[in-house]
């Protein structure tokens, strides 16, 4: 894909929509972590949907920006920069792994699942280091199981959403960013 054609009106519109969807999904369900630092949410499921249907840069921006905005709106200002990088990398890694497995003989759902697991691990490790920097080893270790719970729950939800959209008529044409309208 040529760089000059990357930022089309359609791509920017979908990216803005997915940033908003990730932000809202992150804010709608917030289950506080027991230590009081951070929360479990369902925004990652939309990051995984982005990773399935769009390219790695798109998944990085939608995941990172959408989740960081949710942190800012919810008052988690100290987490927002870490969230941008962590959730952005979650989308990027998931998308890259899905693209790699798309070139193999494995069925699409297997590639989706492996990509989502890789993205979820990236998110869990990223927040471990964020908690380590912000709050110390005790909080980093205490929050790690809850990050794995969030990753697992969002993997299931994202897998179901992506699978349903993958089978829905017209979705691939709608999400095709290179198609001339």
Any low-confidence stretches, pLDDT <50, length ≥5?
none
Strand content: under 5%
Report helical residue fraction. over 70%
The number of distinct helices, counting runs of at least 4 residues, comes to 7
- Tell me the total number of β-strands: 2
Tally of structural domains? 1
Strand order of the largest sheet: 1-2
The CATH architecture category equals Orthogonal Bundle
CATH C-level label: Mainly Alpha
Q: Tell me, what's the shape?
A: globular
Instruction: Give helix and strand order, one letter per element, not per position.
Output: HEEHHHHHH
- Could you say which structural class the secondary elements and strand pairing correspond to? mainly alpha
Radius of gyration: 16 Å
- Main β sheet profile: 2 strands, antiparallel
Short description:
By secondary structure, the chain is mainly alpha-helical.
């Amino acid at each position: 894909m040529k760089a000059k054609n990357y930022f089309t009106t359609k791509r920017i519109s979908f990216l803005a929509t997915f940033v908003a969807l990730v932000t809202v999904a992150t804010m709608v369900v917030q289950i506080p972590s027991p230590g009081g630092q951070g929360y479990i949410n369902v925004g990652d499921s939309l990051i995984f949907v982005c990773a399935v249907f769009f390219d790695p840069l798109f998944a990085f921006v939608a995941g990172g920006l959408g989740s960081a905005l949710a942190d800012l709106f919810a008052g988690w200002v100290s987490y927002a920069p870490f969230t941008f990088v962590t959730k952005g990398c979650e989308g990027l890694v998931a998308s890259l792994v899905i693209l790699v497995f798309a070139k193999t003989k494995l069925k699409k759902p297997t590639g989706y699942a492996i990509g989502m697991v890789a993205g979820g691990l990236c998110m869990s490790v990223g927040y471990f280091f964020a908690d380590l920097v912000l709050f110390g080893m005790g909080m980093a270790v205490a929050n790690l199981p809850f990050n794995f719970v969030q990753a697992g729950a969002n993997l299931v939800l994202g897998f179901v959403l992506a699978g349903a959209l993958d089978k829905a008529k017209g979705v691939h044409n709608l999400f095709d960013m290179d198609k001339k309208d």
